[in-house]
């Protein structure tokens, strides 16, 4: 027996070191509404009442043994469950994290040996007002490490951003626990002071229970956390493949070096051959110039002795074909001159009927229809997305900056480093921006005599329970209220909290309902959702949002598929918004803005503003044509020899062919595009005017034969030249129609309209224009005045002379460029140009800078500039899982989800892995996952999923009703994921549940449109998982983003064996650039092949002539790429249309020269080339080059940047390169390697 003195001491030690409580039960009301203090109780633990057994098993299963003697009662367990609903919903997706977390609170609330690690420091009667909680540092670090990576699928954030009171990157084990135990968080009823120490003191032993790492499974069979929620569960971090190094040789660009060496080698070989032949000739021939002229000399480079040519079968076939063409066109020309009015009236009738289709003309301005083929992948994916989830919303956006320099530094009341705030976050500026925002929200538009407000068209994700419009704005952190923005907590001495505190909290935890500062204001917007700082702020560095230099206000509007009435209402409101913003003025604010309709409106305005420029351009060309056609012999005969009326008629024929082409396709329901309207008249004018000049000038230079009548003369002339006209026009027509095989709508439409217009123009010229030429010739022979046909001059003898341009080409230009030394220089220069262009062809940029599509004075340009400078996030990207996947099965769930038990190569996991290398993948963040949030929402531990047991209908977590029961039982099977019928039974409830304070996982706001349910909720159809691209500024960024997203989607498709595709709103516009190089090469090669075939056939099956024409046109096209690189013109649909057009115009520059060379009967190549250039060169030069040059120069005055770049620059290059190759290089090439066969030898016809 112990001495009596030890009795009291033993009792103290027994109380201290045995199972001993510090509280039990709940007593008085706390200062926080709805919260209670615990009752002070320093006695032994008390057995739990049976009604609390289920709660104990649910919350703290470690104490579910024996008689369950604890330091908490049933009321405390219920309070614990209510208080931990939010952490439960966010952390339970990682079992180890949630187990450690619950251990912390179960030990605090119910541990039967609380007195070992808890110390009550303040009591008021029976109420515990303050305690100390001794926590092992090892435990707290392990708990934090297990939870630090857990994601919030709906917001793509770390869960600790919501639960730590600050951004997850600033959270650690200590401040996280301190925040949870602080009364400032709005949940803790009294202060709990955590003391972190691993060492036991004389009085207390820190709580250091067993913990689990996030990569460890639990004893209850729960698996390790997923890679998305636990870095330790992941393999090595993905490493992006290295960028391919630039192709260099000896540090020099490989293409440049290769082409430079090739050019040098060519010059050496070419000059060597010339020198060798020259030396050989010098040794055997006394006259140096003899070989050029003497065709009988077998050593002449230019020898073409037709008598030595034995015609092959193919050549004889070609001769017969040529003879048939000459005979037909001669007869036809004679008929047209003999029956002019019949021909003219017939042509007018046909043109009228064809052009009548313009009544049905539709002009496509929809960018999607213009740039994306209905059969393209992006278009089909867009249509699939629109059909199952609705079209992507329309966007109204403002970027607000300030010219003021009113930045401030804010010092928190509770200490800490001073925080700088930029000028745009000054409270006065924020108030002014809020005034602007509220005025915009109050705008009222009128559509068909009905008022349209923002609420009629805006995106309201919680409607009908909350009809407030979604407004992504930093002002929505203050619920768009001046009062909340001005909310402060202060006394006469100190300012404890103001908008600075609230802003800093909200940018770190935008989804919170209580900022836990002394303000206790919500961060959620009035529409019920979070405002992510990267969407509402711009111009900041890293995540220092307080340094933002721009405020971004975004108003998403509903878009409507096949509902023009509501769509027109949205467009009407946008129009009102644009008008308001154009008139808005505030010296303290600089606002760049845009609406969904802005780009289309500005393109329309641009087209209208450039009408005067285009009209002036065509007027200059028309005037030149009218004046240049005439050949004035003397001033007295000015009005007789002029051909103004014939020139105007020729122009009208060109315009009629364009109108007929547009009309015929309008009959067929093919819509027009702005490119067709702007480009085709230019093209047909080039082709048509060239033909007009050839016809008229050939007639002017011809002498009528003896006993030959006018109709016979014009018939003979037409027989000579019409095959050449037919050759060029038919080549272009076939080339254009083959270009219509392109998948790009803009190119396809242009090619169809252009091909038909060119061919109709040819038909009208050899019929209607020939008849008009016959009438004009009769007028001129009768000395009647042009235009004033009734007046006539008296008879007089006039000497017929050639035009100055013809004489210049014949006497000066042609002989000069075909001299020996000039030919060598020309070949060297043009091959050098070709080598340079080949060297830079792979350096031409791909894409279309969207700024170029806007007028110089467009407000959208300022928006584009600010968007590139300030925005920090890219466009949303949706990974769409097509219908057919069985989400009710574990296999289907594991293939896409990102939580515990999901496949390592699941959809969510692969997108998450891609976000880790965002600089390479362009995927900015983890995707929002409706499936993972649904699993968290439906867990029986959560109060989210409940239903009325009497009706079976959904019961929201905020409803207090005893008939509401949990969806799933608290059993091992009930804690598992729902499968089969259970999955579909509760999913519609999840998708209709609005998030609230007790359940933040409701899926209505985030996922209402993400899941396409089958009728009557019988199954899940198509679904999407959304994330964001990284910031995209230039065309190459958008193209790369599309490419990488598709690669990722293809990988996912292969992994889960089910079709998944990536969709973003810009994909339909940029998909063309993935294949633009292939499309360009294919279109141009097909056009060249068509030109080669047609040229070969129509030149009497002259294969070599077809090769020379095709090679020359190919050189022009390659040189066009060189000009594009030099002049900063990118490769896109607009420039591709121009390249296809240049292919057609180049035929005009080349084919006439080659045919003239082929039919020439001069003695050698040089003379034949000289004759062809003299006769055809002047017509081609005056018909195309001079006509177009004046009109092109006017385009430089256009306000439209796209006109200046893609029309002025490219048209000028087309004309100059075409003229240079057709009139300089091609004759030289023919003089060297032109074919020796002379077609006229067999036909006994001379062209001239």
UniProtKB/TrEMBL annotation:
SSD domain ranges (all copies): 610-775
Pfam families tied to this protein: NPC1_MLD, NPC1_N, Sterol-sensing
Catalytic activity: cholesterol(in) = cholesterol(out)
Membrane topology term: Multi-pass membrane protein
Transmembrane residue ranges: 247-280, 341-363, 615-632, 644-668, 674-696, 753-775, 821-841, 1081-1100, 1107-1127, 1133-1151, 1172-1198, 1210-1233
Gene Ontology biological-process entries: blood circulation; central nervous system development; cholesterol homeostasis; cholesterol metabolic process; cholesterol storage; cholesterol transport; chordate embryonic development; epiboly involved in gastrulation with mouth forming second
Molecular function as annotated in GO: cholesterol binding; lipid transporter activity
Gene3D superfamilies tied to this protein: Multidrug efflux transporter AcrB transmembrane domain (1.20.1640.10)
NCBIfam families: 2A060601
Family statement: Belongs to the patched family.
Designated name of the protein: Niemann-Pick disease, type C1
């Amino acid at each position: 027996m112990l001495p009596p003195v030890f009795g009291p001491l033993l009792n103290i030690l027994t109380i201290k070191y045995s199972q001993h409580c510090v509280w039990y039960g709940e007593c008085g009301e706390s200062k926080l509404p709805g919260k209670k203090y615990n009752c002070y109780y320093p006695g032994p633990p008390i057995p739990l009442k049976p009604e609390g057994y289920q709660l104990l098993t649910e919350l703290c299963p470690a104490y579910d043994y024996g008689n369950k003697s604890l330091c908490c009662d049933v009321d405390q367990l219920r309070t614990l469950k209510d208080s931990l609903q939010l952490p439960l919903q966010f952390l339970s997706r990682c079992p180890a994290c949630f187990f450690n977390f619950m251990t912390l609170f179960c030990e605090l609330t119910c541990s039967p040996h609380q007195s070992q690690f808890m110390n009550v420091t303040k009591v008021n009667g029976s109420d515990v007002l303050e305690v100390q909680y001794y926590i092992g540092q090892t435990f707290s670090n392990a708990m934090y490490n297990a939870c630090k990576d857990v994601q919030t699928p709906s917001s793509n954030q770390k869960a600790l951003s919501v639960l730590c009171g600050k951004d997850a990157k600033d959270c650690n084990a200590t401040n996280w626990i301190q925040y949870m135990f602080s009364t400032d968080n709005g949940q803790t009823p009294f202060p709990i002071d955590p003391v972190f120490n691993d060492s036991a003191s004389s009085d207390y032993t820190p709580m250091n229970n067993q913990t689990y790492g996030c990569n460890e499974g639990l004893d209850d069979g729960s698996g390790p956390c997923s890679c998305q929620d636990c870095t330790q569960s992941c393999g090595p971090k993905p490493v992006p493949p290295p960028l391919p190094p630039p192709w260099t040789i000896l540090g020099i660009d490989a293409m440049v070096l290769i082409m430079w060496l090739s050019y040098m080698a060519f010059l050496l070989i070419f000059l060597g051959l010339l020198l060798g032949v020259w030396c050989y000739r010098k040794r055997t021939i006394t006259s140096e110039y003899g070989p050029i002229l003497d065709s009988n000399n077998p050593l002449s480079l230019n020898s073409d002795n037709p008598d030595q040519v034995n015609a092959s079968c193919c050549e004889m076939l070609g001769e017969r074909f040529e003879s048939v063409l000459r005979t037909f066109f001669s007869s036809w020309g004679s008929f047209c001159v003999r029956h002019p009015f019949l021909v003219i009236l017939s042509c007018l009738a046909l043109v009228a009927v064809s052009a009548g289709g313009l009544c049905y003309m539709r002009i496509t301005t929809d960018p999607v229809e213009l740039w994306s083929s209905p059969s393209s992948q992006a278009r089909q994916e867009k249509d699939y997305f629109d059909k199952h989830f609705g079209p992507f919303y329309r966007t109204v956006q403002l970027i607000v900056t300030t010219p003021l320099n009113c930045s401030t530094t804010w010092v928190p009341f509770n200490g800490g480093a001073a925080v700088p705030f930029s000028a745009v976050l000054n409270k006065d500026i924020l108030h002014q921006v809020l005034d602007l925002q509220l005025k915009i929200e109050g705008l009222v538009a009128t559509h068909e005599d009905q008022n349209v407000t923002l609420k009629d068209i805006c995106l309201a994700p919680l409607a009908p329970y909350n009809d407030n419009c979604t407004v992504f704005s930093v002002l929505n952190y203050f619920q768009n209220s001046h009062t909340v923005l001005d909310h402060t907590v202060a006394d006469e001495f100190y300012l404890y909290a103001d908008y600075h505190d609230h802003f800093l909290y909200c940018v770190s935890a935008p989804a919170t309902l209580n900022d836990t500062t002394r303000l206790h204001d919500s961060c959620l917007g009035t529409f019920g959702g979070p405002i992510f700082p990267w969407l509402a702020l711009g111009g900041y560095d890293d995540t220092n949002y307080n340094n933002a230099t721009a405020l971004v206000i975004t108003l998403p509007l509903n878009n409507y598929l096949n509902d023009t009435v509501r769509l027109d209402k949205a467009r009407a409101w946008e129009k009102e918004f644009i008008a308001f913003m154009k008139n808005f003025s505030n010296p303290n604010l600089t606002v760049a803005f845009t609406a969904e309709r802005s780009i289309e409106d500005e393109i329309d305005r641009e087209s209208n503003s450039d009408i005067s420029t285009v009209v002036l351009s065509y007027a200059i060309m028309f005037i030149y044509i009218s004046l240049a056609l005439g050949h004035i012999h003397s001033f007295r005969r000015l009005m007789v020899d002029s051909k103004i009326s014939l020139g105007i008629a020729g122009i009208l024929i060109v315009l009629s062919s364009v109108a007929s082409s547009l009309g015929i396709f309008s009959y067929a329901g093919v819509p027009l595009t702005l490119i067709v309207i702007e480009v085709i008249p230019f093209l047909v004018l080039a082709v048509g005017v060239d033909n007009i000049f050839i016809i008229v000038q050939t007639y002017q230079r011809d002498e009528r034969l003896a006993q030959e009548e006018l109709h016979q003369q014009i018939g003979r002339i037409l027989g000579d030249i019409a095959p050449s006209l037919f050759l060029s026009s038919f080549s272009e027509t076939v080339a254009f129609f083959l270009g219509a095989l392109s998948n790009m709508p803009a190119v396809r439409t242009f090619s169809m309209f252009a091909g038909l217009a060119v061919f109709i123009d040819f038909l009208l010229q050899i019929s209607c224009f020939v008849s008009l030429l016959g009438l004009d010739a009769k007028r001129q022979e009768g000395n009647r005045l042009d235009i004033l046909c009734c007046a006539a001059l008296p008879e007089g003898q006039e000497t017929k002379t050639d035009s100055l341009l013809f004489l210049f080409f014949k006497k000066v230009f042609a002989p000069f460029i075909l001299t020996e030394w000039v030919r060598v220089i020309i070949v060297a220069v043009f091959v050098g140009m070709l080598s340079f262009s080949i060297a830079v062809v792979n350096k031409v940029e791909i894409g279309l800078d969207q700024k170029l599509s806007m007028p110089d004075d467009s407000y959208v340009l300022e928006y584009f500039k600010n968007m590139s400078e300030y925005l920090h996030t890219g466009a949303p990207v949706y990974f769409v899982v097509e219908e057919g996947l069985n989400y009710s099965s574990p296999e289907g769930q594991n293939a896409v989800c990102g939580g515990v038990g999901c496949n390592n190569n699941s959809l969510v996991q692969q997108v998450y892995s891609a976000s880790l290398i965002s600089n390479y993948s362009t995927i900015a963040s983890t995707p929002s996952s409706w499936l993972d949030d649904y699993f968290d929402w439906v867990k029986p531990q959560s109060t989210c999923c409940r239903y009325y047991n009497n009706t079976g209908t959904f019961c929201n977590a905020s409803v207090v009703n005893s008939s509401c029961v949990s969806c799933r039982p608290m059993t091992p099977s009930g804690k598992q994921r729902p499968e089969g019928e259970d999955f579909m039974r509760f999913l519609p409830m999840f998708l209709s549940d609005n998030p609230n304070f007790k359940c933040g996982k409701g899926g209505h706001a985030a996922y209402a449109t993400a899941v396409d349910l089958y009728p009557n909720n019988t199954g899940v159809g198509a679904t999407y998982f959304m994330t964001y691209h990284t910031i995209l500024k230039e065309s190459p960024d958008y193209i790369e983003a599309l490419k990488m997203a598709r690669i990722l989607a293809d990988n996912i498709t292969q992994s889960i064996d089910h079709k998944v595709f990536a969709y973003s709103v810009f994909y339909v516009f940029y998909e063309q650039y993935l294949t633009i190089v292939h499309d360009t090469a294919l279109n141009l090669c097909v056009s060249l092949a068509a030109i080669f075939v047609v040229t070969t056939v129509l030149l009497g099956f002259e294969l070599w002539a077809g090769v020379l024409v095709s090679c020359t046109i190919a050189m022009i096209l390659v040189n066009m790429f060189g000009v594009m690189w030099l002049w900063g013109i990118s490769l896109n649909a607009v420039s591709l249309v121009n390249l296809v057009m240049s292919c057609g115009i180049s035929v005009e520059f080349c084919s006439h020269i080659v045919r003239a060379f082929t039919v020439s009967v001069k003695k050698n190549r040089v003379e034949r080339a000289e004759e062809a250039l003299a006769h055809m060169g002047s017509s081609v030069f005056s018909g195309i080059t001079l006509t177009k040059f004046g009109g092109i120069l006017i385009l430089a005055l256009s306000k439209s940047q796209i006109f200046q770049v893609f029309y002025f620059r490219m048209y000028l290059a087309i004309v100059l390169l075409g003229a240079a190759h057709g009139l300089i290089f091609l004759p030289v090439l023919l003089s060297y390697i032109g074919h020796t066969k002379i077609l006229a030898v067999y036909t006994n016809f001379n062209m001239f």
